[in-house]
């Protein structure tokens, strides 16, 4: 009789865990959405979404309105949108208004308050900024 009760309790626990998603951590990874502001009269604005991939990396997805035919280099830079330092992380070129890159930086490392996500007009017009957003500190 005792074995039957233990078996029934074990079965009930398995059913309950399955209904609850197996008891594992089902929380969404930390995400931060930035508003990319138009620069240099580009007519381009949009979003940059930063999502923790694992404990060591972050996915950065850029979406820009009014894309040109030319790929647009994008990076994470130190400084401000008006005074960029050399890139600290290269991002995929924005093509048809979209780019997605996984960088070897944690979300916390990106959230120092001293970095920006930035898109350039083209490789030929690298010094012309088209969209930018400051990554806020945590």
Short descriptors:
16% helix; 138 residues; alpha+beta; disordered N terminus; Immunoglobulin-like; nine-stranded antiparallel beta sheet; 42% strand; 9 strands
Write the layout of secondary structure elements.
Elements: H1 2-19, E1 31-38, E2 46-52, E3 58-64, E4 72-80, E5 83-84, E6 89-94, E7 98-103, H2 107-110, E8 115-120, E9 129-135
Antiparallel strand pairs: 1-2, 1-9, 2-3, 3-7, 4-5, 4-6, 4-8, 8-9
Largest sheet descriptor: 9 strands, antiparallel
Structural class: alpha+beta
Q: H/E element string? A: HEEEEEEEHEE
- Average of per-residue pLDDT values: 86
Task: Provide structural commentary.
There is one protein chain. With 138 residues, the chain is α+β, with helices and mostly antiparallel strands. The protein is built from 2 helices and 9 strands. It has a single domain, classed as Immunoglobulin-like. The protein is globular, with a radius of gyration of 22 Å.
